[in-house]
Amino acid sequence: MRQVRKVAVLGAGTMGAAIAAHIANARIPCLLLDRIPDESGEGPGASDPKFRNRLAQAGLDAALKARPAAFFVPEAARLITTGNFEDHLSRVGDCDWVIEAVTENIRIKRALLERLQPHLSPGTIVSSNTSGISVGAIAQGFSEQFRRHWLGAHFFNPPRYMKLLEIIPTEETLPEVEELISRFGDEVLGKGIVRAKDRPNFIANRVGVFFGMTVLRLMEEEGFSVEEIDLLTGPVIGLPKSATFRTLDLVGLDLHAHVLANLRESLPDDEQRDVFQAPDFMARMIKRKLLGEKTRQGFYRKSSSTGSSGESVISVLDFSTFEYRPQRKPNLPAIDMVKGIEDTAQRVHSLLEAPDRTGRFYQKLFGQTFHYAARLIPEISNEIVSVDNAMKWGFNWECGPFELWDAIGVERIVDLWKSEQRVPPPLVEKLLSLDEPAFYRGDPGKTEFFDLRSGDYIPVPERPGVLLLSALKAQGREVKKNAGASLIDLGDGVLCLEFHSKLNTVGLDAVQMIHNGLKALNADFDAMVIGNQGANFSAGANLMLLLLAIQESDWDEVHRAVRAFQNVNVALKYASKPVVAAPFGLTLGGGTEIALHCASVVAAAETYLGLVETSVGLVPAGGGAKEMLLRAMDLVPEDGDPFPFLKDVFTSIGNAKVSTSAADARTLGYLSARDVVLMNRDRQITIAKQEALNAAKLGYHPGKVRDDIVVFGTAAFSRMRHALHLMRRAEYISAHDLIVGTHLARILSGGGEFTGPQRVSEQFLLDLEREAFVSLCGEKKTVERIQHTLKTGKPLRN
User: DSSP letters of 359-371?
Assistant: First the structure.
């Protein structure tokens, strides 16, 4: 089968440039083309290549400046070549996939594709990133060869972070074309693939926009404020923190209004068509240019003035006056009542039963959303799984609509419909004929879903190459478990250590389970993987337990805990069989130290590693400073100056730098060149397992404990301390930062007492780490930092 080795993106607007950036993130060369700018007057512009390529280059430049960042590292932009449609369209002949991403206008799209056709090589795949125009209509009348290699491939914005890629084949699209782009999107671009029918706005936007507009209508009916709605439609029900209005500000009200108009126009027979009518307040906001982030004011406005905390003041639009006012903390008792419920589905179930306007809001919102989603089967998709995945991957919902519906109870929602005289859609009518109606049944890994066509349950399709830890545990493959971690048999002689504490923090229970894992590894397994499938790999050490020990002045316990963590990391590093870490998401402090001590790492592309202990007034004490110093000194060329390498380590740890991606983690030294980075986190455990097996088969040898780490004593200590004093004098750091930084400098210089270069052991540096850590635990300002972080989740600079 043809491979995708080079891609062209036609259209360098916000979306096109961001798609090109993500393709470059995957290390695939990309051609980014746009039109030639309109000339104003006579001049050299018409023949100047820079002028002719200006729009494509501007798109690339904007992607480089985008926040959140479109590129893993800026250097990835070198894989993108810019050009224009007039001079460079012939270059698509070298491309395997061409992505059209120009203006959402069928006439403009067709005109460009007509010009494109003669330049395509046989078998080149062409797709459209349209979000609302019929894919089949765009290519109508084109050659048979073109139509057979044509489909929709709809990325979600921003492409780097949003997992969903909707694939929309036409009746003429070759199956192998759909398969190739689906596989490439999954394995190379890291996307979650959902097959959608060629209906207006496909799956995610069709359901998501309906949900959002229902929220706005209910807000007006029930009299909720902007702040209340964002509380009701955020994490409390498993939706992103941006909730409703912050999301609209990010999207832009003008763009949202365009999507609504497109839906209303393209859905003349939809009985819920009126839901896609923009409310009056949105029209007024657009008229006044209150468009959101692009105009720096929308539903929210960030003031340049600062409050008492030194932070920007955020105001909110009051619809009664159409003026901005200070934010108000919502007072919704029903939300307070469910704060102790960790499971999202259970929270939603409880909120629906609240006997106040909050309960009424959720009853109407979910009752109407579920009815609409059910009615769209089979119009937009034959399978409810596709709808659930589209909402989870495209809108970052924690649970899809049918999964949430199961949690609430199918019949509970039907009862609400009865009170509104709402007729159940065919999907629900068939489902209700069963004894125990539910959209899903079975255990993880053996889940079945209700299929409208057969009227029966069929298995959720397996994804080859994806191992689910929950499924393995359901099959009885859990070897051992405590409150912080589990050991799971992955098969083929590989053991997995899974963290499952809150935020996957590392406490004594997790440390004990690592020891148990190493014992099992020695006795019964060939290799071990440390990984999980939660929200993040690990937020670091359990600060609450540390704070309790400090408050009780139990310094012996602090010493024991630190020594235990150091010992387990050394045991990981020198285990007789390979241990592979599989970090992803937040991998902070102790999480990074665990990864640093493993034989190798298989990191997800979106992994944010960092030794962040200084942000809470501490220094790394699980071997992190030791390991970073060791790696840095090993990189110093013979007769090279070691101080720039030492400075990089001092700066990274001292400033609590966190990588912005796995690629960035390589530049910071948290990952090595031999470590594996993969785009699709769903495949991480599988790839880590294979890496561990490969190491075992090749005759793994851990090496011996290092006693040859070069430190530079007073010379290095003096230089680092001088830098700290200069930063303090310039007020870049606080007095307590100076204390913390001095402790770090002492560790990295080998104690600061040697008068010349000296070779020391790993244990020597571990002892320095531990002594500095325990000493800082006795500082009042360190305790204040720990307390503040535990309370707010944010660092304190005191």
Answer: HHHHHHHHHHHHH
